[in-house]
Amino acid sequence: xxxxxxxxxxxxxxxxxxxxxxRTEALSQAVVLFVAFGLFSALGWARLDAPxxxxxxxxxxTGLTGALLMHTLSWTEEDSSDVRARARRRPWALxxxxxxxxxxxxxxxxxxxxxxGLGPLIAARQGDSGVExxxxxxxxxxxxYDTLLEIAVLLVAALGARAVNPRSERPDKxxxxxxxxxxxxxxxxPALLLVAGYLVWVGDHGPGGAxxxxxxxxxxxxxxxxxxxxxxxxxxxSRVRWALLTGPLMFILVAVAPLVSGGRLLEYPEKxxxxxxxxxxxxxxxxxxxxxxxxxxxxRPPRALPEETP
Length: 310
Hints:
By secondary structure, the chain is mainly α. About 75% of the residues lie in helices and about 0% in strands.
């Protein structure tokens, strides 16, 4: 009874929140509604027995993205003309949303009912992967090529984000002396490190892994920036560069090591496959955390001064 009531509430609230995000005229309200939509989405993924996606949605889609939007909101100055322009685009947004929803619904309903998918095949080879969790087995063993390329894409995206805004904020001395934010950061740091370490460890046999742990660490970094305990990462720092490259370099090293003994690329030794996957995930956690933190903006861009009329 309660499960059905919860599912019905999610089915009603998710499209309602999505519509409110599109409908609202104030950017601040849209950001708050977007964060609420992300939280409900994470709960929906959990109800669909997809805890890995729920963790990513809660940490990245809601936490980091919400903090990024709220921080960026302080840079904006909207006027009545901006509100009117968004109002004129609203009918087209509604039409596109309905069309996309209908297309996705048709695609889901068109799937064959008796198709078992790849689940049985993965279960049959689970023992060869070195881990007990099927998601980790797919991402870092069966489809390791895809994960390695995804990490490369994240690095390129981080470089692009930093190229758009290469400057970084310096910590404010007055803010650093604030006892409230300092105590908050000191209390939160051990808990974040503990949760991140647990997610890396539990990824072997349960929902977790490098991306979820990296998102947790990046969230702690965002709090450190907002409380002026540190500045945004700078590419000129050797520690930042090494943090970005630690995961990809470790992944490449583990991937090419079997070639020395006549094996194939990404062919883990069966005896050490579990250990190697854990080492790769630990290294990727550091790189993913730094990549996500690179997206957080630095100083506010300079405002264009109004032209003086003669």
